[in-house]
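Students often ask why we bother encoding 3D structure as a string. The short answer is that it lets us treat folding as translation between two languages. Here is a chain of 370 residues written in the first language.
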Amino acid sequence: MTLLSFALLYVLLAGASFVVFPDPSSAGPRDFQAAEQTLYMTVPKYVFLGRSVLANPDSKVILVGASNTGVGFRQKLVQAHLGCAKVSNLAMGGANISEVKQVINLVHEVQSDEERRLNTFVIGVWFGMFVDSDVKFVEGDRHRGETDIDIERYRYGFYRRTPDGPVAVLPAHWLDAGVMAIRPFLLLEKVARQARAGVNLVLTGRTSAQRTDDERESVVMSAEDKQKALEYWKETMGRTTEISAAQVEVLKQTIRALLDSGEKIVLVDLPIPAWHRDASPYQPSYRQALKDLLQEFGDRPNFSSLSMDDLDNDLDYSDEVHAKQHLADVWSTRLAGKLDSFVCQENPDKSAPKVTTLRSSELVTAAPGH
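And here it is in the second language, the structure alphabet:
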């Protein structure tokens, strides 16, 4: 009887999960940055469990990178300017280059060779992503060097941990069946998370520590904020002056493998505010690494790059890295122009269109929400 009751509860929860969070179209585009509004709750979980949407015979633009790629490129806006491909944003907060490679590999796991050749990967980079995994991923109860993607691999038993790294327990072609099987557990986790958010709302007046777009628009960093940011990145990078050469090599190998498999790449040099760029000891080695990559791959027909160095006004950023919403709209339009010429047109034009940005300093001050 107990087993029967459990089975009945399992079926009811599975049904409820489809009522409350129906499966979106399996033919995507998909904004994985909207994970909080889904059954998956977090971007790493959404990317790991929801990636089969990218297994289709359509031309696809797949954005990968860290949180500034997720915040700075608005999936819906890029998609609105791009009629020839389906745009999905798989950027991961806190990702280093190794984790970006993991995301790309996860996409490949669910695709056929023919589907891979229809990919255009937009790889957003900046110096803060060139941190070795055993330096960056050390907090919590994770094993040293395990990324957020690794955590999701092990969470539901889809992979098992071995001395040589993750080993798949569930074959990639059974991913959707596996996700179907755990939907009741995902629903319970979602309910628990929303309950915690409700408690936070009562205690603090807000459901999350994350700033809203309106709040980010009004932020101006103080001198003290800037100094704290510089100290944070000095601690995070794990070295005093240079980015990780090993992570540069990972990026180089990733680009080479994608090009050799017939996929397209747009490598985006993500701008940061001028004060941070000029004060950081890591920027010179990052610029040299980027220059070397462009020299090596710049002549490959399936490779293009985008630089937005002119978008460096301090007041257009909510912190030392992330573009405010009005600037994110400009980033997105720039990227869409690049993709239109590189992916959609017969004869790619490698120059990015110039779009004037409205500087924060030129805006009339308004209270958040206005």
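Translate back mentally: Residues 347-370 have pLDDT under 50 and may be disordered. Keep this in mind for the problem set.
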